Amino acid sequence: MIEFEHVHKWFGELHVLSDITLTIQKGEVVVICGPSGSGKSTLIRCINRLEPIQRGRIVVDSQDLGAPDVNLKMLRAEVGFVFQQFNLYPHMTVLENITLAPLMVRKMSRRNAEDLAMALLEKVNIPDKAGAYPAQLSGGQQQRVAIARGLAMKPKIMLFDEPTSALDPEMINEVLDVMKTLAREGMTMVCVTHEMGFAREVSDRVIFMDGGKLVEENSPEEFFNNPQSERTKEFLSKIL
Ligand code: ADP
Ligand code: MG
């Protein structure tokens, strides 16, 4: 579903992604962790080409993102993205936030888009918030709306960039629970997170990045119980 072949990216002099080779299968749940500034956000932003690369190749669902005729609109419809900051439209209700892209991009009928939005609000456990504005919701509720909004495009892949980092502790689990449900339903997911409980429980693979490099990649059991590199050990000793 996602393939990186010897990917390099620079921001000016900064070699932010260095020789990244990575294959993610359909239905796989991959957690990416690593210190701040190691290139995690840049890496997942490359998957829907929010960031161009300078060397190597990225293929997403059989589309070569470097091809001159790559259809970015299609790509971004297929790849949902949930950020640390929820980025909901403040002047729109929850229902309007969720139906906007299905109406505009998928050209769905209003009736179908609203039925879908209501079903997704059930799924993220806030069916009663359809008419609320983002400012009337808690952070955890806003993030669940953001997930529902991503799912409304019926994506093949969901990307999460530290989706719980801006939340108060008591709201983290309500967001992780939704992500766990998605994972169990077979969604292909790439999650940048330091929630190691989530990684242990539902991920198929954990990737550790440092200094723009993919340092270690393993099953969660091996990653946590038997980390290979010194840098991974040091990182885990700080966060566990
Ligand atoms: P992480 O998500 O692991 O914290 P990022 O991918 O956000 O790391 O950033 C990796 C490095 O690239 C950092 O040193 C950051 O300052 C730098 N960086 C990120 N975005 C830009 C940008 N648009 N322009 C220049 N440097 C950037
Ligand atoms: Mg980041």
From TrEMBL:
Keyword Transport: yes
Domain ABC transporter per the UniProt entry, residue ranges: 2-236
Top-level taxon of the source organism: Bacteria
An example molecular function term from Gene Ontology annotations: ATP binding
Leader sequence segment: none
Keyword Transport attributed: yes
Stored SUPFAM superfamilies: P-loop containing nucleoside triphosphate hydrolases
Keywords: ATP-binding, Nucleotide-binding, Transport
Family: Belongs to the ABC transporter superfamily.
Cross-referenced PANTHER family: AMINO ACID IMPORT ATP-BINDING PROTEIN, PHOSPHONATES IMPORT ATP-BINDING PROTEIN PHNC
Protein name: Phosphate-transporting ATPase
Organism: Desulfocurvibacter africanus subsp. africanus str. Walvis Bay
Lineage, uppermost ranks: Bacteria, Pseudomonadati, Thermodesulfobacteriota, Desulfovibrionia, Desulfovibrionales
